[in-house]
């Protein structure tokens, strides 16, 4: 996976001098720019990934600017209960007369916050544990990997549900729980990369030069393991959005009145809503599918673009 | 082989112990004590303390853990806080429906994924390939609960073809056809998720194999393309798919919670949701342990099947 980047880094290292070789991973030197350029060029070939990126960009802009673009206050209770879509309420209103479109836009904030926030936590934990485990090996590796095994043997959604029931449901808790329980995949992935990277000559050279362990880990090894981490994180965002939606749908995630695509679907468990008020449950469901699909396409595009095995 | 299985079992023991520890800690973080849920709130505090002492709830946490673990080994999972039934009995009654649901979903998922994956691999970049790949992405991206609601809307409410929930029709004969009708929608929901993930898996696995020399030899000998793909290539391409057994069990168990909840399927997923809503911690602990046990067993089984199916892998 990381072979190509390693070779480019080695090339940069020969001109860069001691210790600097890996710091230049993405931007500064000419060689690395061509790697970034290649990734961009190959990413652009993946039409669906580009489409996904465009959709997610629009969605993020919408979420950030939500207070200025929503047609109504998403918490404003009005007389018009369960009103059908009209010029006034483009997607109708819910059981207490709140504008569905406005809630849909505000809910995008929740999904993006959960996706980014929890993945930031889980990838950080996974990366640090994977680095330590792979680099030091031996007992440390054994201990970290057994803990990973333990966390992987719980069906994730079940463990999440139990923890939520113990600590109580809220947006912050959902982010923290998804973050602190979702690191196992990243840990294994990073460990695998580190095991192969630490055999490279430039790492051995760093050790021989007497560089500190943190410096070798974070400045020499980590930048070369970034590609798989980034791909893993992207798929992680998609997974977190689905998890949050499922939790909120079950009433154990983001709590009303805060709008989340998941909790907007909760009411559709009643058959009357399901049959006669499709504007209440179809839009949030479609938003979940579209955003998760987009993020998955972006992940697929990144994987293809950064995989040195598929040189095009 | 036997030595390998024994070694794997020995590794599984500390992992399972770790599972019980985490399980115990998480549940003990829960606010309130079981005693407060069992008795009249007007009981004097001294009596509550006495009851806690009698139940061992004032012991240090590690002692409580050991007591609980010993009980678990004896098959005693305690009593439900809501129904007062033995937890083991409650789970025993519900495990059958869940295993049926998961097993069928697994078969349906693979029955969709394997042929589509092969077609996709043999006709790379054709319209069918794009359709299958796109379909697989959709299968991954659509949440269980939304798909379930959509299917209920179409097949139960609009077309009135299939029941929207339960395992048998109440007051009906509960015959085979009736049961089958109740199974279709939940199995479709869980099966779609599996198929979505596996289509691309089968596809890349077949593509890898198709480039190998022994297939070129087979073609050179004049073996028909159909036989090359479906006999020579497939046998090796399907080996990695064995790993799905281990990988899918935890996902299926999680999916079962949501799906059983929506379709009122009387399995362990629905029991999990009920226990969470009622804060029925003894039941939850047993359910978590059972789930972890099933995952570990599935992983072990996968590795064993894998080593039997693929003689190239040598375990020491």
Low-pLDDT residue intervals, each spanning 5 or more residues of chain A: 1-30
CATH topology of the largest domain in chain B: MetI-like fold
CATH structural architecture of the largest domain in chain B? Orthogonal Bundle
Estimate what percentage of residues of chain B fall within beta strands: under 5%
Uncertain regions spanning at least 5 consecutive residues of chain B = none
Provide the helix percentage of chain B. Answer: over 70%
CATH class of chain A: Mainly Alpha
Number of domains of chain B: 2
Helix and strand content put the structural class of chain A at mainly alpha
Radius of gyration of chain B: 24 Å
Global mean pLDDT of chain A:
82
H/E topology pattern of chain B: HHHHHHHHHHHHH
Radius of gyration of chain A: 23 Å
So, the CATH homologous superfamily of the largest domain in chain B? MetI-like
Please give the CATH class of the largest domain in chain B: Mainly Alpha
Q: How would a textbook summarize the main sheet of chain B?
A: none
| CATH architectural name of chain A | Orthogonal Bundle
Give the end-to-end Cα distance of chain B, rounded to a whole number of Å. 8 Å
Number of separate structural domains of chain A = 1
Separate helix tally of chain B:
13
Q: Report the CATH superfamily of chain A.
A: MetI-like
GO cellular component, one term (chain B): plasma membrane
Membrane topology (chain B): Multi-pass membrane protein
Keywords (chain B): Cell membrane, Membrane, Transmembrane, Transmembrane helix, Transport
InterPro entries (chain B): BPD_transp_1_N, MetI-like, MetI-like_sf
Write the topology of this structure.
The complex is a heterodimer of chains A (312) and B (316).
Chain A: H1 3-16, H2 30-45, H3 47-64, H4 66-69, H5 100-136, H6 138-153, H7 156-167, H8 171-181, H9 184-197, H10 201-208, H11 213-221, H12 226-249, H13 261-265, H14 271-276, H15 278-306
Chain B: H1 2-28, H2 34-38, H3 45-55, H4 61-73, H5 87-122, H6 127-141, H7 144-158, H8 176-210, H9 213-220, H10 225-237, H11 243-262, H12 268-277, H13 281-309
């Amino acid at each position: 996976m990381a072979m190509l980047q390693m070779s480019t880094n080695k090339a940069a290292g020969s001109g860069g001098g001691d210790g600097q070789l890996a710091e230049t991973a993405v931007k500064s030197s000419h060689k690395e720019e061509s790697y970034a350029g290649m990734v961009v060029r190959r990413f652009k070939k993946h039409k669906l990934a580009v489409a996904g990126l465009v959709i997610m960009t629009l969605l993020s802009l919408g979420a950030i600017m939500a207070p200025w673009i929503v047609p109504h206050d998403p918490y404003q209770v009005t007389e018009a209960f369960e009103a059908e879509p009209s010029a006034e309420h483009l997607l109708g209103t819910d059981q207490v007369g709140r504008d569905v479109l406005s809630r849909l836009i505000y809910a995008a904030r929740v999904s993006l916050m959960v996706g980014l926030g929890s993945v930031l936590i889980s990838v950080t934990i996974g990366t640090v544990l994977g680095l330590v485990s792979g680099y030091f090996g031996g007992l440390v590796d054994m201990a970290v990997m057994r803990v990973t095994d333990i966390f992987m043997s719980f069906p994730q959604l079940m463990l999440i549900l139990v923890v939520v029931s113990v600590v109580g449901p809220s947006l912050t808790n959902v982010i923290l729980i998804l973050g602190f329980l979702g690191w196992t995949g990243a840990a294994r992935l990073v460990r695998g990369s580190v095991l192969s990277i630490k055999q490279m000559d430039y790492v051995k050279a760093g050790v021989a030069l007497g560089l500190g362990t943190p410096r070798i880990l974070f400045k020499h090894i980590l930048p070369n393991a970034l590609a798989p981490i980034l791909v893993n994180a992207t798929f992680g965002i998609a997974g977190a959005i689905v998890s949050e939606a499922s939790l909120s749908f079950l009433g154990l995630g983001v709590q009303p009145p805060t709008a989340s695509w998941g909790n907007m679907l909760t009411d559709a468990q009643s058959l009357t809503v399901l049959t006669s008020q499709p504007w209440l449950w179809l839009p949030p469901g479609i938003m979940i599918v579209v955003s998760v699909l987009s993020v998955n396409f972006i992940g697929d595009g990144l994987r293809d673009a950064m995989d040195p095995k598929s040189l095009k | 082989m036997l030595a390998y299985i024994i070694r794997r079992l020995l590794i599984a023991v500390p992992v399972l112990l770790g599972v019980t520890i985490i399980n115990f800690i998480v549940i003990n973080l829960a606010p309130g004590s079981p005693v407060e849920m069992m008795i009249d709130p007007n009981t004097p505090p001294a009596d509550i303390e006495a009851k806690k002492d009698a139940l061992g709830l004032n012991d240090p946490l590690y002692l409580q853990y050991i007591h609980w673990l010993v009980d678990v080994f004896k098959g005693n999972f305690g009593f439900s806080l809501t129904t007062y039934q033995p937890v083991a009995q409650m789970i025993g009654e519900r495990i059958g429906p869940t295993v049926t649901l998961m097993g069928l979903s697994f078969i349906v998922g693979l029955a969709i994924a394997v042929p589509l994956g092969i077609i996709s691999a043999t006709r790379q970049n054709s319209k069918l390939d794009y359709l299958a790949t796109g379909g697989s992405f959709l299968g991954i991206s659509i949440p269980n609960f939304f798909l379930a609601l959509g299917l209920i809307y179409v097949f139960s409410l609009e077309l009135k073809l299939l029941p929207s929930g339960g395992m048998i029709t109440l007051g009906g004969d509960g015959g085979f056809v009736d049961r089958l009708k109740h199974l279709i929608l939940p199995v479709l929901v869980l099966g779609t998720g599996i198929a979505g993930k596996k289509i691309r898996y089968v596809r890349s696995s077949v593509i890898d194999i198709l480039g190998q020399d022994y297939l070129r030899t087979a073609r050179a000998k004049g073996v028909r393309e159909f036989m090359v793909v479906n006999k020579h290539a497939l046998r090796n391409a399907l080996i990695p798919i064995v790993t799905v057994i281990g990988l899918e069990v935890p996902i299926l168990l999680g999916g079962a919670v949501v799906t059983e909840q929506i379709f009122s399927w009387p399995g362990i997923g629905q029991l999990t949701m009920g226990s969470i809503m009622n804060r029925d911690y003894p039941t939850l602990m047993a359910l978590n342990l059972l789930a972890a046990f099933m995952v570990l067993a599935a992983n072990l089984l996968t590795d064993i099947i894998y080593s039997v199916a693929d003689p190239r892998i040598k375990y020491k």
